[in-house]
Specification:
Layout lengths: L10 H5 L16 E6 L5 E2 L2 E3 L1 H5 L3 E6 L9 E3 L5 E2 L2 E2 L1 E3 L5 E2 L5 E7 L2 H10 L1 E3 L7 H12 L26 H10 L4
Antiparallel strand pairs: 1-10, 2-9, 3-11, 4-10, 5-8, 6-7
């Protein structure tokens, strides 16, 4: 059967909306756990407010690192991670500073997926703004070091509240530089 694609049997079922997935399996009484993740890298966490979340219908619990000080100790990095030969540990929940975009900063447990989604949206995290001009300083430093600038984690500043997530732009010249440095496939 070398070089011949087998006929697919599942397409009709999936196209008709009759597919069954693990998420579709309902069991009586399971709680759902969701993680609130940092939207910024290298950002100070001034406040994580879970008071309104805990009052919401269907929410069983909500915690930040401050609530779990005894339990949220750092754990050794996977596969014996080290930096410059020194092993390091990673906290379960970021407490004072988020080191990377997507770092866990709070956990919410709810009765069902809908209550969980609403509760995760209700978590209020305050990231103080970077000082004015910091973006210009970082761009100059990147140019000095020959680095390509992207709109990722360096996208926080004084007008962050007016900007939708993912709406950070990359200058055309920086995009061209990034394309030049990307190896062809």
């Amino acid at each position: 059967m070398r070089g011949v694609s087998p006929k697919r049997k599942e397409d009709a079922r999936l196209l008709a909306g009759a597919g069954r997935f693990v998420e579709d399996i309902e069991r009586a009484g399971p709680a759902r756990l969701g993680v609130v993740r940092s939207q910024h890298a290298h950002a100070q966490l001034k406040k994580i407010d879970l008071r309104n979340v805990r009052k919401r219908a269907g929410v069983l619990a909500a915690w930040s690192a401050a609530d779990l000080a005894d339990l949220a100790r750092a754990i050794p990095a996977a596969w014996g991670g080290s930096h410059k030969g020194k092993p390091f540990a990673v906290p379960l929940l970021a407490a004072e500073r988020a080191r990377y975009v997507g770092e866990p900063i709070a956990v919410v447990v709810a009765e069902d997926a809908y209550a969980l989604a609403d509760a995760l949206d209700a978590v209020e995290v305050e990231y103080p703004n970077c000082r004015p001009g910091w973006g210009r300083h970082l761009r100059a430093l990147a140019q000095q070091l020959g680095l390509a600038v992207t709109g990722g984690s360096d996208c926080h500043g004084p007008d962050d509240a007016k900007r939708a997530p993912g709406a950070c732009g990359v200058r055309w010249a920086d995009l061209q530089l990034l394309r030049q440095r990307t190896p062809a496939r």
